[in-house]
Amino acid sequence: MTAEELRETIARQFGRSLHIRTLDTGSCAVCEQEIRLLTAPHYDLHRLGFFFTPAPRHADLLLVTGPMIRAFEVAARKTYDAMPGPKVVVATGACALGGVYPADPFTHGTVDAVLPVDVWIPGCPPSPLALLHGLGVAVGRLAEKVRDLPFTADDHPERTRGDS
Amino acid sequence: MTTVEPRVVPGAVTTFQVASPDLEAVVRDLADLRLADMFASGAEHTTLRLVWANDTAGQAGYVVTETPVDSGEYPALSDIAPAAFVEECEIYEQFGTRPAGGKPLNRMMLPPHASLPTLGRKPPAEPEEARAPHMVGGQAFEFPFGPVRQVGVESLYYGLVTSGEEVVDLYLFTWHKHRGLEWRLQGKTPEQALFLAERTEGLSAVAMTWALAAAAEAAAGVQPAKAAQRTRAVALELERLYNHAAAMAALCQSTGLSVGQSAAEIALERLLRLNASAFGHRYLFGVIGTGGASRAPDTDAIRDELPGAYSEFKRAADALLGTNSFVDRLEATGILTADQARDLGLVGPVARASGLTADARLVPGGPYGTQPAVATATAGDVLARFTVMLAEAAESVRLIGQFLDAGTAASTIELPRTAGTGLGWAESPRGEALAWVALGDDGRIARARLRPASARNWRGFDDACRSQNVFTDIPIIEASFWLTAAGMARLQGRRRMTLWFIRGIRRGVVTTRYPARPDASARFLPTPPAFRPRALTRVTADRLVASCPSGALRRDGGVLSYDVGRCTACGRCAAEAPAAVQSSGEFELAATARSVLIKRIPLREER
């Protein structure tokens, strides 16, 4: 996918504003540092139509780091539930994918043990370039979800999109 | 048992036995030293250890006191040494042993009603969530904040006590990030333990692994080669440089100065790329090995790129110090007095900005000698912490040059499998990182204590936030501490951020064209391995599986199963069998199905 195609996809599906909420479920702080650098001049995430938002209510994409500490599970679920659909969850980094901590009394060991993950980004940490690639993949996944949405017209409840 | 009066031997760790009834008197005796750490070990017979540091240049060294506390109680030390309170709480949670006198203890690591494994006996009762009375004229209330906070920052939960705008008190709860690291290290070899130590606080990966490796070396009686020690020091100073650049970016963000933030981030990104080209990892993972260093730096890369990256850093720093609105915001914000810093046993730039001299690099015997010029300030505010960091960054550049001139190399020593105990330290960007290990007869870890600087300095955070400060100061103070979960003399320059900004636009920074075009910086990134099936026999495959610290490799009969998702690209498999493994160079690995990340490689049949 070229930058132009990516921008167009985001523009078409989300009015040029795909919003990302980050969630740390027990990382070592390095994944967060790489995520923060996405908005730095060298990477400039905004040029591609991505934005960060502190409010899960405004977020389309949940970028999750860390091995999902059990004590954090409630906060993780609440954050996910507060997001409107369609939404995608991106598990980020080796901790989130099960490479550092096993499932044990402290951690679930992977993010997908608790949240429905759509995209997995390997790396320890994933570099900003790897994160950009992963976000591009996530846009494709989100577009699929949008396409599959069963829309219902308010004034014609019997008619849903896809019916002719 | 008679009490020996503990004395510090410069450059050494001196251990003394102290009987429980004498402990209080000894702690009073040692009041002129800094209480650096306190921890317990032993589930059956619990021993309490206090680590004391002498921070005076030329006399720097450590004293460890050992006290058996089988009775389930020990003298209440935080009454005479306030720095001990956090550890008293922690020891109660982990070992069920508490200070005498029945004082209430706070909850530290164990979440309410959870049954997590502990290092020793379970505490007889839940901690009491003790808090200072926080009614101010009947008007104060508590405002819970977190654990999910701003974007791109770690999870942290704090209770903010406020009367509306003024910060009356602030409590931290860190159990959302408690990963049981010390519990996990039990039974591991020191070599294996480095993998987790690196991820304790990834932004001080070098310092934490150095401290743990040094502790294990002391326990096993091994001394790293001089050139390997200098390699460690080069990595540690590079770690300091990028962290201080990141702290500068965070300070700009917290003050809403996006031009300055971008300038600091340009310096930060250049320093991280320098790390990658010099040591193969943006955050310097994998540099420290037991008995030395696993990787040698690309010295040419450092000599070529460090001056440019640092001048970027310096340019941003100078512009910021010439921007009055920025400096005004930092001045007199989040003040910590020298007494507060001393009482709480704070370390690093936070302590040095309050006039203390604690710096683990000054302990004789390491690669630093008498070299480092330690920057201090006296105001104790955010501006003081910022200027201390700037002075330290300049000193780091100078030190790196000296270490490169003296010669660096990679060499490790396999530790003998013997029992012993040892203390290790390294000065992380946030301050002294400590580690203590007890090795069993098989050379495996019986008890490891990891104490990154953050574990120390968070306890100063609420003091810095209290009283004079308002809500909006908190992010600024947090940035100046630059922890994980991580100047008085104002320059009278004419530089203004706006002018600097226009210059920046003229000069231009090339934003990556990725994903439209490839990015040249990608070639320095650590990438997961690619396997040569022709060179892979079952025997080789089993060696690779054993070398992998993250469980990414598994052998199923005649097939090697490789999970890219779990891989940390640490390079241990490539080091184990260079003929069968090479770096793939691929970083575009994200997938929409977990199974796509698992590859199955058929093994060559042996004849």
Protein described:
- The complex is a heterodimer of chains A (about 160) and B (about 600).
- Chain A has a single domain, classed as Rossmann fold.
- Chain A has helices at about 5-15, 30-35, 75-80, 130-145; strands spanning about 20-25, 50, 60-65, 90, 120, 150-155, 155-160.
- The model of chain A has no long low-confidence stretch (mean pLDDT about 90).
- In chain A, α2 links the parallel β1 (about 20-25) and β2.
- With about 160 residues, chain A is α/β, with parallel strands linked by helices.
- In chain A, α1 (about 5-15) crosses α4 (about 130-145).
- Chain A starts with a helix and ends with a strand.
- With about 600 residues, chain B is of the alpha+beta class.
- Helix content of chain B is about 35%, strand content about 15%.
- Chain B has 17 helices and 19 strands.
- Chain B has helices at about 25-30, 85-95, 180-185, 190-200, 205-220, 225-255, 260-280, 300-320, 325-330, 340-345, 350, 380-405, 455-465, 475-480, 495-505, 540-545, 570-575; strands spanning about 15, 35-40, 45-55, 60-70, 75, 100, 140-145, 155-160, 165-175, 290, 290-295, 420-430, 430-440, 445-450, 530, 555, 560-565, 580-585, 600.
- Chain B is globular, with a radius of gyration of 25 Å.
- Residues about 485-495 of chain B have low confidence and may be disordered.
Tally the beta strands of chain A: 7
Q: Taking strands numbered 1, 2, ... along the chain, how are they ordered across the largest sheet of chain A?
A: 2-1-3-4-5
* Binned strand content of chain B: 15-25%
Largest sheet of chain B: 4 strands, mixed
CATH architecture of chain A: 3-Layer(aba) Sandwich
Spatial ordering of strands, largest sheet of chain B: 1-4-3-2
- Our measurement of the CA-to-CA distance between the termini of chain A, rounded to an integer number of angstroms, reads 32 Å
Major sheet of chain A? 5 strands, parallel
Name the beta content range of chain A.
15-25%
Task: Note the overall shape of chain A.
Answer: globular
Main CATH class of the largest domain in chain B: Mainly Alpha
Helix count, DSSP H or I runs of 4 or more residues of chain B:
17
Shape of chain B: globular
Work out the radius of gyration of chain B. 25 Å
